[in-house]
Design brief:
Elements (H helix, E strand, L loop, with lengths): L1 H6 L3 E8 L5 H18 L4 E5 L3 H16 L8 E5 L8 H14 L4 H6 L3 E9 L1
Parallel strand pairs: 1-4, 2-3
Amino acid sequence: MRSLVTVGVESLVVLGTMVNPRKQERARRELLGRLLWELDQRAVSVLTLESRHDERNRHDIRAVGAFRNQHVVSRRLIVEHGRPVQEPMLWVPDAVAGAVGDMQFGRPAWLEMLGDPVEVLEVGSVG
């Protein structure tokens, strides 16, 4: 975790409470929309999502297209999928998410170690 601090990684976590566990993809889409909007506002040019499997990746790409058509996100933000084997930085979101999860359960040490570059946006109920 200290290496994240030394390389200057900034993290944005969009956090929601899932209302219905059977609507996990719907909740993911809602959170993805907020994340894309936030990143677009911050002039991020490329977002690499961790690849799940082909069908789920297509769901993500369709969602991105819908967000663009709804003007939630501009076309300048490129969204792609990658595998951790090919893109080693994809382990960073897992580490940050784990630290945020630990914080929610009263164990803030990992998140405190990351310091200021972690911003958590709580969006309430999703799904």
